[in-house]
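A further point concerns the way the authors explain their paired sequence and structure data. For illustration, here is how one protein appears when written out as sequence plus structure tokens:
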Amino acid sequence: MNLSIIAAIAYGMLAIIGGIIGYFQANSQVSLLSGIISGSLLVFAAYLQLQGQAWALILATCITAALVIFFALRLAKTRKFMPAGLMTIFGMLALTVMVRQLFTVG
């Protein structure tokens, strides 16, 4: 198991947990739905990478990049570290690992 798979699983689980927390703290169904969908897609992409599907790394990279952009814009708008700042930082770390793996493999 390479580092990009671990990064996709970790960031995916963080997105799922964050969506659940957002639902319970702010009663935000959008947070719940988007967290579960994006997190599940990242975990699924990690599973596909384990199965040898090279394109799954591209999928995980695209989802992570979209989340980083979303949370960076949210951080700029609200100026609140939680949850946007945390998700941006962890997303950039995961994205760095994934992009590095992309250039190593392909």
